[in-house]
Design brief:
By secondary structure, the protein is an alpha/beta fold. The chain is built from six helices and five strands, in the order βαβαβαβαβαα. β4, α4 and β5 form a beta-alpha-beta unit. The chain is globular and about 45 Å long. The structure holds 4'-phosphopantetheine. 4'-phosphopantetheine binds next to β1 and α4. Homohexamer. One of its GO terms (cellular component) is cytoplasm.
Length: about 160
C-alpha cells in the first residue's frame, strides 16, 4: 500500500523526520509530497526543500520525494496512494487536521487520512518557530537534524 505524507516542510524538523520514518515502516511505499503552492510565504523554495529531503531520506529504499501543485487528494489519486498520513502534535493540530481530513474525504472518498501521534519531545516543534529562531540567529540544533541545520546555515 502506498501512502502520501504531504506538507510544506519549510524546513523539515525532527518531528517530520519521526513521522516519515514511522510511516515508511508502516507502508510499502511512502511519497513525501512537498506542496509548492501552499498559502504560506515560503522560506525555502521547493527546489531547496526537494534537495534537502533527498539527502535526509536517501537511506530509505521505499521513500520517494515529490513536489506537487494543487489539491493533495488529486496528487494522491495521481500516485495511486490510498492513504494520506499526517502528524498530530496537540489539540490544535487535531482540530485543523480533522477538518482537513473530513474535507479531503468528501473530495476523494477512496482516500483515507491516517494520523500518527507525535511523541511528547516533538510536540512543540514547528517549522514556523524553527524558521523564526534560525532567521534571528538562534540555535536550532534541538529542533532539526544536523543535515538540515548545515543546509540552512549554508544559505545564510
Ligand atoms: O504541514 P503543513 O505545512 O501544514 O501542510 C499543509 C498541506 C500542504 C498538507 C495542506 O495545506 C494541503 O493539503 N495543501 C494542498 C491544497 C489542498 O489540498 N487544500 C485542501 C485541504 S482540505
Amino acid at each position: 500500500m502506498i501512502a502520501l505524507y504531504p506538507g510544506s516542510f519549510d524546513p523539515f524538523t525532527i518531528g517530520h523526520e519521526d513521522i516519515i520514518s514511522r510511516a515508511a515502516k508502516t507502508f510499502d511505499g511512502l511519497v513525501v509530497g512537498i506542496s509548492e503552492d501552499n498559502a504560506k510565504d515560503n522560506f525555502l523554495n521547493y527546489e531547496q526543500r526537494l534537495n534537502l529531503a533527498q539527502v535526509l531520506f536517501s537511506s530509505f529504499s521505499n521513500i520517494q520525494i515529490s513536489c506537487f501543485r494543487g489539491l493533495t487528494v488529486d496528487f494522491a489519486k495521481e500516485l495511486g496512494a490510498e492513504i494520506i498520513v499526517r502528524g498530530i502534535r496537540n489539540v490544535t493540530d487535531y482540530e485543523s487536521e480533522s477538518q482537513m481530513a473530513q474535507l479531503n474525504k468528501q473530495l476523494a472518498p477512496s482516500v483515507e487520512t491516517i494520523f500518527l501521534n507525535s511523541p511528547d519531545k516533538y510536540r512543540s516543534i514547528s517549522s514556523t518557530l524553527v524558521r523564526q529562531i534560525h532567521l534571528l540567529d538562534g540555535d536550532i540544533s534541538s529542533f532539526v537534524s544536523p543535515i538540515t541545520k548545515d543546509f540552512l546555515l549554508k544559505l545564510k
